[in-house]
Amino acid sequence: MSSSIAFDDLLQARQRIAGLVRQTPLEHSPSLSRLAGVPVWLKLESQQATGSFKLRGASNAVAQLDAEQKRLGVVTASTGNHGRALAFAASQQGVKAIVCLSELVPQNKVRAIRELGAEVVIKGRSQDDAQLEALRIVREQGAAFIPPFDHPHVIAGQGSLGLEILEQCPDVCEVLVPLSGGGLFAGVALAIKAASPAIRTHGISMQLGAAMHASLGAGEPVEVEELPTLADSLGGGIGLDNRFTYSITRELCDQVHLLDEAAIARGIRHAYREERLVIEGAAAVGIAALLDGLIEPRGPVVVVISGRNIDIDQHLRVLNGADA
């Protein structure tokens, strides 16, 4: 399946969205480098305008709609960050957006999406429920459906992040990527493995409801129960009819690592105390994997810090010792 998304698609996506997203910094982490025994770099996608990497894929997808599709608008289902990114990208390009969310999406993310001018629809207790509602709207209104991960334009947009990593850290040996539906992982891995198959790719997720990990173990996409977790952006299924991200992840992922809630909380605390970063649980999983000694790096490590959109009250609770 990865052959259906060519390296040239990533290059074109990067050029297409150059004026719409930021090239984010790669910052050295002295504390994690001491711990790992090799240079560790943090790729700060938390500094995107919407607070997460999702703006890359959403911007690339919206930019490729034709005039009629833009007139009818766009719709999506999201755990929060993709919806926020799509709302922002649509507003930049003069397109109406509808974002379907489940009841599990934190209220700070719901508010942020509404503030960007998108219509928000709350439906059910899982991303799968929200997606069914989004597809109903597509059928009734003719809007273009832009999914959060399993779409070639979305994957190619996320792949621009992988291209930046290769330019900013050409001697990278290990890349740690938060793993959920697989759009981020697939895009980054397509770029990384095209440069050198020897660079190891690590997908990092949580123990509570890691759908891609369960699907890889089953040998096909499977459903999992979506559970409350500090890494809420990694929740949701990958879709039983998954066309792209499952096969790309299966082909290009060297290792998957799962973290409990206490480890994710430690990652959030470390990011704040040692790196002066406020990040969400999904973005802290790479740091947490290093803190837990799950990675045995052979050389320089790049950790993708995927987003900062954590509820501030939750962040304060975690800093004060809570694991939820």
Layout of SSEs?
Layout: H1 7-16, E1 26-28, H2 30-36, E2 40-44, H3 54-63, H4 67-72, E3 74-78, H5 81-92, E4 97-101, H6 107-115, E5 119-122, H7 127-141, E6 144-145, H8 152-168, E7 174-178, H9 183-195, E8 200-206, H10 211-218, H11 245-252, E9 255-259, H12 261-275, H13 285-291, E10 301-305, H14 312-319
Parallel strand pairs: 2-10, 3-4, 3-6, 4-5, 7-8, 7-10, 8-9
Antiparallel strand pairs: 1-2
Helix pairs in contact: 1-8, 3-5, 3-8, 5-6, 8-9, 9-11, 12-13
Explain this structure to me?
The protein is an alpha/beta fold. It is 45% helix and 14% strand. The protein contains 14 helices and ten strands. The chain has helices at residues 7-16, 30-36, 54-63, 67-72, 81-92, 107-115, 127-141, 152-168, 183-195, 211-218, 245-252, 261-275, 285-291, 312-319; strands at residues 26-28, 40-44, 74-78, 97-101, 119-122, 144-145, 174-178, 200-206, 255-259, 301-305. The strands form two sheets. Strands 1-2-10-7-8-9 form a six-stranded mixed β-sheet, with helices on both faces. It has a four-stranded parallel β-sheet with strand order 5-4-3-6, with helices on both faces. Helix 3 (54-63) packs across helix 5 (81-92) and helix 5 runs parallel beside helix 6 (107-115).
